[in-house]
Inverse folding.
């Protein structure tokens, strides 16, 4: 950031040259926020400003300067000569990503820019990561700030899995594991990690929000890209592009992927009754995902813009679990077979209209989003080759959002934002059970609906180009109803809450900043907590709890950032206090079936540290080290086996350039022992390798990545409750040794921006399973 001299302030008051413009990213044609713009005269900075979140800037300065310097972390510096600036016209400045700096968060080669904004971190995913052909879930596994369990699909931030995941700012009806498995990494543009959300973001997600921004084709003329990949028991292909003619832009994407997995699981159980049980549970998976997206942008004039889009997903997969139970205590062994399938069909419609009052970031925006997905889960069970029963679970899930946003720059350093949101969810689930001989046939259903009305206001002000203050307040009214036909599980929730937020940024200089974030969050009881009809398996099922109350969290964090051409450092410490926590509690039946129920269980104090440092050791090599450490103390949680919980990880990455066209990445991750409320996980480690080559003027990219080169990344979990000790060994195919070879080719490429619509953040995370 800029430090203005006294003489510069005096000159500013005496002269009146007005400069207005916008800063854009050169390749993606998207705005770049919080860029430093310096006015230089006689090799000294005499004035300056920063761009806002839409990339706009404006200042009145001295007339006799020589150059205008534009700088931002991760981009090549830009110099604009005074004689090229027409004070009667707005200027557009395009910044190129800094290509010689290597990445700290991606699998393969080049580093892309990581922006630390006042209330979130934005990881601009580079071509090396985008074109490895793996899913978004595996992309998350390479980001140090996100804790990923590839076996269960669980996603955590700072040791807590209560995370709201959005796609292009929109919710999904799928669980995180289903949702992230559907998204190929080649479709990802950037990932926003929001651990201290401001008031303009929905209040759900105790530990924060992860927003995945997918690519949008925005360039003029015809643009066409082809991606194809093959790997360990999988393949994928995709074709995306757009055609823009004058004020009309048509964009499309089609992708298909297929994956098989044959993971294995071994369990040893010792019950308090003295019974012993050994289980061998191989897990065969066969899945297909097809996605089609169509969008239309209309740029009617400088003031009026609108877009409509439609997305369709067909996600189906089969499971084959041939489980062998043996009993050291003398019972006969049992071969238990379950065959099941998941069918997901999702349609999403979106309409957006934006009215630009002027070209200074003053606008109104109205948006409507409708997401409908139908899900079917049939299953059949046999024991010792004798058919037992079949069951079927299905649901229809509808999510609607209507949002109005307003942004008003009241000066060159101050902006007011306000908005209103309405969110609605409807869920109808059905369950059917049939015995082999037809002696027992039963059906059940559950209906659930919820509405959220929200208002927010945010004020942002920059003082002397060093301090930025952002304060906001959000109000949400939540109402939900759920019941079975016989009213056996009837709920009727009604909550009204305020959620303040405060963010302060201090710039020591253009390379160093401090950020402070304070926010309040909530986790309300939702249909997954209450719904008694959720798909399980022979040794695992869910129990609904209609008595749950909301969980609240007060979050604070402090972040220091240093970045220059040679070294980068980001360090964060945080504190989070949660009240009335919603805790996942396990119990076991006499038959050994694990039952999961969510309950309210006291308070939790959490604190920890995250650090990420990178340095260019040689012109051809960059090394980075990422580490995190999290502690949690449970208060008054009598049901928990342990009340002092912890987790940590260490990731070392070395990236090499091999000539102009090739690069290589070697990554090592070590995860020490993790302690949960009812379980602990043994330490584990993994070595990954990736190589990439760009050919034919970078139009062709070939990527090879190998996960767990040494094939040692096994997963050991130990459960301890008052009634059971369970030790589990898992070998997940997606986490142990495997490879992906991907080829990406740019068939046609042009350059021009199409639309700059607001990156909306919706309410209503959730899942269907």
């Amino acid at each position: 950031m800029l430090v203005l001299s006294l003489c510069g302030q005096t000159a500013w008051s005496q002269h009146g040259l007005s400069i207005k413009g916008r800063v854009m990213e050169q390749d993606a044609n998207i705005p770049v926020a919080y860029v430093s713009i310096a006015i230089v005269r006689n090799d000294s900075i005499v004035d300056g400003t920063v761009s806002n979140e839409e990339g706009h800037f404006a200042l009145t300065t001295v007339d006799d300067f020589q150059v205008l310097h534009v700088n931002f972390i991760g981009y090549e510096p830009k110099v604009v000569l005074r004689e090229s600036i027409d004070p009667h016209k707005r200027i557009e400045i395009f910044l190129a990503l800094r290509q010689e700096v290597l990445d700290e968060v991606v699998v393969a080669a080049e580093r892309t820019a990581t922006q630390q904004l006042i209330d979130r971190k934005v990881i601009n995913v580079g071509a090396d990561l985008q074109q490895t052909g793996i899913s978004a879930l595996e992309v998350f596994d390479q980001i140090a700030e996100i804790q990923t369990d590839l076996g269960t699909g669980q996603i955590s931030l700072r040791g807590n899995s209560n995370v709201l995941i959005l796609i292009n700012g929109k919710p999904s009806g799928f669980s995180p594991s289903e949702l992230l498995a559907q998204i190929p990494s080649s479709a990802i543009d950037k990932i926003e990690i929001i651990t201290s959300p401001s008031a303009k973001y929905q209040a759900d997600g105790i530990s924060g929000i992860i927003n995945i921004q997918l690519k949008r084709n925005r360039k003029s003329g015809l643009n066409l890209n082809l991606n194809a990949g093959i790997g360990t028991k999988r393949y994928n292909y995709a074709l995306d592009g757009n055609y823009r003619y004058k004020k009309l832009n048509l964009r499309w994407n089609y992708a298909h992927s297929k994956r098989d997995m044959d993971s294995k699981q071994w369990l040893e159980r010792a019950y308090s009754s003295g019974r012993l049980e050994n289980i061998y549970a191989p897990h065969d998976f066969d899945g297909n995902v097809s996605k089609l997206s169509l969008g239309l942008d209309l740029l009617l004039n400088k003031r009026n813009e609108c877009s409509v889009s439609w997305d369709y997903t067909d996600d189906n997969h089969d499971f084959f679990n041939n489980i062998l139970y043996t009993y050291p205590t003398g019972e006969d062994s049992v071969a238990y077979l379950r065959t099941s399938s998941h069918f997901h069909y999702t349609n999403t419609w979106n309409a957006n209209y934006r009215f630009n009052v002027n070209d200074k970031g003053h606008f109104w925006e109205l948006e409507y989003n409708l997401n409908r997905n139908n899900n079917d889960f049939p299953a059949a069970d046999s024991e010792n080759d004798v058919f037992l029963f079949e069951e079927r679970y299905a649901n229809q899930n509808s999510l609607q959002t209507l949002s109005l946003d307003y942004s008003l720059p009241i000066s060159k350093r101050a902006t007011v934002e306000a908005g209103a949101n309405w969110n609605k969810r409807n869920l109808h689930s059905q369950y059917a059970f049939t015995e082999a001989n037809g002696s027992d046939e039963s059906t059940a259903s559950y209906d659930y609906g919820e509405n959220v009305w929200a208002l927010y206001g945010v004020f942002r002000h920059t003082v002397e180009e060093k301090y930025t203050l952002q304060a906001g307040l959000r109000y949400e009214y939540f109402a939900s109803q759920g019941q079975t036909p016989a009213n056996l599980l009837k709920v009727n929730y009604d909550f009204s809450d305020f959620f303040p937020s405060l963010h302060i940024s201090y710039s020591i200089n253009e390379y160093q900043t401090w950020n402070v974030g304070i926010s309040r969050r909530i986790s309300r009881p939702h249909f997954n907590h209450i719904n008694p009809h959720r798909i399980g398996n022979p040794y695992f099922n869910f129990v609904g709890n209609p008595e749950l109350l909301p969980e609240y969290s007060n979050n604070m964090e402090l972040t220091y950032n240093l970045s220059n051409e040679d070294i980068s450092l980001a360090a964060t410490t945080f504190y989070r206090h949660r009240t009335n926590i919603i805790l996942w509690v396990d119990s076991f039946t006499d038959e050994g079936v694990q039952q999961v129920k969510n309950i309210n269980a006291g308070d939790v104090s959490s604190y920890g540290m995250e650090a990420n440092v990178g340095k260019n050791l040689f012109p051809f090599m960059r090394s980075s080290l990422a580490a995190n450490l999290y502690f949690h103390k449970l208060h008054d949680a009598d049901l928990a086996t342990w009340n002092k919980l912890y987790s940590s990880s260490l990731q070392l990455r070395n990236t090499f350039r091999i000539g102009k066209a090739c690069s290589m990445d070697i990554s090592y991750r070590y995860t020490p022992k993790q302690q949960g409320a009812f379980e602990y996980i043994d330490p584990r480690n993994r070595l990954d390798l990736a190589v990439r080559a760009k050919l034919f003027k970078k139009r062709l990219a070939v990527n090879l990545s190998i996960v767990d080169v040494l094939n040692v990344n096994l997963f050991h979990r130990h459960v301890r409750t008052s009634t059971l000790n369970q030790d589990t060994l898992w070998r997940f195919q997606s986490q142990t040794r495997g490879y992906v070879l991907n080829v990406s080719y740019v068939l046609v490429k042009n350059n021009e921006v199409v639309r700059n619509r607001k990156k909306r953040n919706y309410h209503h995370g959730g899942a269907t399973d």
